[in-house]
Amino acid sequence: MNKVVLYMSMSFDGMISGHDDGPGRGLGVNGEALHAWLSDGGISPGSHRPGVGVNAEVFDEMMQTGAVITGRRTFELAGGWGGDHHDGVPVFVLTRQLPDQPAPGHARYVTELESAVAQAKEAAGDRNVLLHGGSAARALLDAGLVDELVIHLVPIILGRGRRLFDDQGHRARNLELVSATEGADVLHLRYRVVSR
Amino acid sequence: MNKVVLYMSMSFDGMISGHDDGPGRGLGVNGEALHAWLSDGGISPGSHRPGVGVNAEVFDEMMQTGAVITGRRTFELAGGWGGDHHDGVPVFVLTRQLPDQPAPGHARYVTELESAVAQAKEAAGDRNVLLHGGSAARALLDAGLVDELVIHLVPIILGRGRRLFDDQGHRARNLELVSATEGADVLHLRYRVVSR
Lengths: 196, 196
Known about the structure:
The structure is a homodimer.
Chain A: E1 4-11, E2 15-17, H1 53-63, E3 67-71, H2 72-77, E4 91-94, E5 107-110, H3 113-124, E6 129-132, H4 134-142, E7 148-154, E8 156-157, E9 162-163, E10 173-183, E11 186-193
Parallel strand pairs in A: 1-6, 1-7, 3-4, 3-6, 4-5
Antiparallel strand pairs in A: 2-9, 7-11, 10-11
């Protein structure tokens, strides 16, 4: 059975982007530091793949997923990844309201959480599903639809920003640490969601 | 030179206590889970010392500190630790306003951050200073007075509660991971504060 795995870079104080982000602004002041591990020693121009070591392994694992679920905000901030997140796998973009225009490339808009997860798992076959984005993560966690969290914990206190776990009274969950692996300038923490 | 080291148990979503805490309420619903690692296999009745392994080592390290700095809220929630946090070392309790009554036992109230740190370091001699409590931690971090963070990261999402890092626009800090050590049901993360 394939799994839904959340992959997110997070600061030590829980931020997933800097405080001045917005469309066209990228990751904001200090927010860039959250993703610095993605390009350390990069050998592939135009790619975020770190060249070597643990970080490259984690990146490769992400890129071996067979479908993507994300939220509309993350999707638009990323410019829709040009319609192709990786290898042409389908990208399911959660949105409250379907836009007039269809999503570009391999992306499609979906309004129902359960349906998005079912479609993504089906499309991914025996590969896992990559979940990315704060509000998508929170919605799926609350709905008990996330199997694992892989958090790239970046050694920085941002002080301000957008949180992965906001204050909207989300459901309590027990986790189980699967592995803690040190990469260059980042600690990759893999947790299994125990109570769903 | 001795160091000021913050020791705090924190949930994966950044909470240091449950949502219904308050004087007499202890750690609140689910908040108890944050400190479960302190008593696993406990061999010392009346003590929080875990009996064995990594958790016992971390606990012993905390108890080898030569002074304590905390905030008044934490101090009062803990009942002032009966006037003796451990081994009769001095406890410096940060407060905005000096109460009419002196602090009990080995504790004393202080209103100035820098003075509290200077007094605690002096009193601790060649031992480190244990810093504990959310608001004390934030105040000292903002003032550049913290040398290391030892966070006992508990594998639970609380969903609600009181954060270690709140949203009051604190200063950005670079950290450096010193060690990530797995104990029973907890991951001990030690960071050095790089930019102060």
